[in-house]
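Proteins fold reproducibly. Take a sample protein:
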Amino acid sequence: MIPADVLGRVFASFLSVDDALRARAVGKTYSARLIDEAFLMRRIASSLAQQQLTGLIELLDGEFLEGQVRQVSIENVTRPIGEVVLQQEADIVRSLTKDNFLPVMVALDYLHFDTDKIFTNGSTQSLLWRIHRWVVVEGWLSDHNLAVKVLDSFGRYAFIARFIHQHVGIRAALRPSLLKMPEVIREQWRRCERGETHDDGIMAAVSLVANLGDAISCGLVDVSRQELARFFSNATAHRRCRRPTDIFTFSSTSTARPFSGNDTGDFWCTDLCVCVAGLPHPYTPHTPDHPGCPLPPSNAISDGDAKVRDVAGWCMVLPDQGGLKGVTESSVKCFTVEASLAIPCSGGKADEESAVRLHEGSIAVAKGIPMGDGGSTSASVAGFHVVLLSGALGGHICKPSISAAALEEAGACLKEVKMKTTICTFPMRALALHYLRMCVAEGCYEEISMMARSIRREVAVHMAAALSAVKRHHLALVLHWVAAIGHVCGPACDAIKFYLKDSILENIRDVPIVLPLLPSLTPAIQNAVKEALLDALFYNDSEGVLLKELVDALIDHTSKDVAERQREVDALRLKIDTLTVADQDRRGTERQPAEMDGEEEGQGEADQGIKA
């Protein structure tokens, strides 16, 4: 039922039912004509009874204002719009036109209908779904003016925001206009910075940015590096957060039994593969042999018939490139992964609240990033994963299981274990990664260094480890990034060194680009680069192919460097010549009046001599 105060805000004036819906003129006298009471009451009753709005009759407690065109204006809702919205779902949709579409959406928002639910007997589709299909099929949002009005309205009207974030077809249709209107995203971004609750407006903005990033990954949007930078800057209000936080996100959750049937602990959540295995007694955290390419231990328990009480801990692994579907060179993602393992309670209830969790807290595949402000080691940013240039760094986490005494279902098998996985995606970070990818493709290495220096060092070091797994242009990207942030050690350094050998073999032509960076690298990474280069040339190049390619690259790089320097010299000379000419012109302009003054003085003296 619609609250009376809500209806009071919607309608400017009311008619009394006791007055038999008698219309009153704006002037001093009443109109003699009556509104068709039976028709109007039938229209209201047929629609509102379906929604159990028994108190809506009370809204008719005032006066209508009747204009010359015979339209009854009720605040922002005209009579034709009111006649449209007071119908059943199918009739509302059939009455929609491109001209009345937005006013009808605003009216539906005012009325607070349960428009995402089915309220007509025998209907199989909600009103929101029907409108979305109608708009997509008719192609109304290809009209830039209408698309701009929709984008400009979702921040104020929750119904329009739901219309956007619940239907991918609408987001795709709004995409061309969104690139020209980053300010509609900026408003919601600022709300996220202020810590406001994720309502429909924020969800619509997040879904629009996510759709834009996915479209760029799939090659559906042709956007330049400069255009993307301009959109990103305007959408985030040209400023950075003083302290990085996990904002502007959306999550998707999947539940499955990873040890049931033919599964061996592998679980697909959307397009991401997650592997979980049990650790035997005594509990020993597993450390993978290769950083970035984690695998479960050889003695891991993955048999579905094994008992839960025989498991001392849980190992969750996110594979590297093998754990992703449909990844191309242009694919970009930024996400976090959390999971929980539980078994049903002894009563056999299937609800989540009665299940027994098999570990403390949640299982986050990547460790949080401690900011270290004021001596604090608390993580204000969740550890995130990156997919960039056909590569992704794997991750793993181990958690001890609860004690056997705490297990009510001590005899439960692994195949009864339920795993709930939540993937949290960061669309705005994905746009920044798209910009980074474009910088690499265009060889704008100074932009890469600037990006590394512009973000918090703790996050930049985490990014260095994530970037170490990229498959294209690895050497130039990673070493420019590391050289910009300075000293790198620990897991990030290990991940970088792990991929260096293969990187040099695959990117031998990028070696001349990174050689000037060696003095600014961490000594451990310097030595790793030198060893990987020597190993590639002396142990993996028996036919001298790599050496020849390296020499050609050195010559080519030197030639380009000389040509670039020559262009800089020519430009400098041209600038000097231009300034010289301008200076000479200025001096000539100053000299000319002085010479003219001297000539006038000489002529005056001659005249005086003649007169004498």
Notes: The first strand starts at residue 250 and ends at 256.
